[in-house]
UniProtKB/TrEMBL annotation:
Pfam families: OsmC (PF02566). It comes from Chryseobacterium arthrosphaerae. This is OsmC family protein. The lineage of its organism: Bacteria, Pseudomonadati, Bacteroidota, Flavobacteriia, Flavobacteriales.
Amino acid sequence: MKNHHYKITTQWTGNKGTGTTGYRDYERSHTISAEHKAVIQGSSDPSFRGDRTKHNPEELFLSSLSSCHMLWYLHFCSEAGIIVTEYTDEATGIMEETTNGSGHFTEAVLHPAVTVTEESMIEKAKELHHKANEYCFIANSVNFPVKHIATVTVK
């Protein structure tokens, strides 16, 4: 078994001068950075006093599921001789907030729209979404099923 290690830095940038003296006295703004990569501007969801113009953890979580699936999918298509020319996923997720204010995701649905070069590739292209789900590191790390509603068309 091989281990892979990751390191990011999350830095709170929302101190308006008085720190966390009160719930409404600070911003939820923060940055997420990794060496040699662009900085991501983050905040909490607007429902939790966040800045709607910045990415929130829930969106980043869902995007991790979506992009991990896509990368495995493209890998398996390449191996199988399926030529993908376009891939877009409009992923959706549901987070349930509990009565004590905590919460958890109960569902994620990926909606990949894939374009291939030949009609003969469509069935195998659809099947490979199942294999990508089995291999996706992020999907294998969550405690709920990640569903797929895929469409495959020919350009």
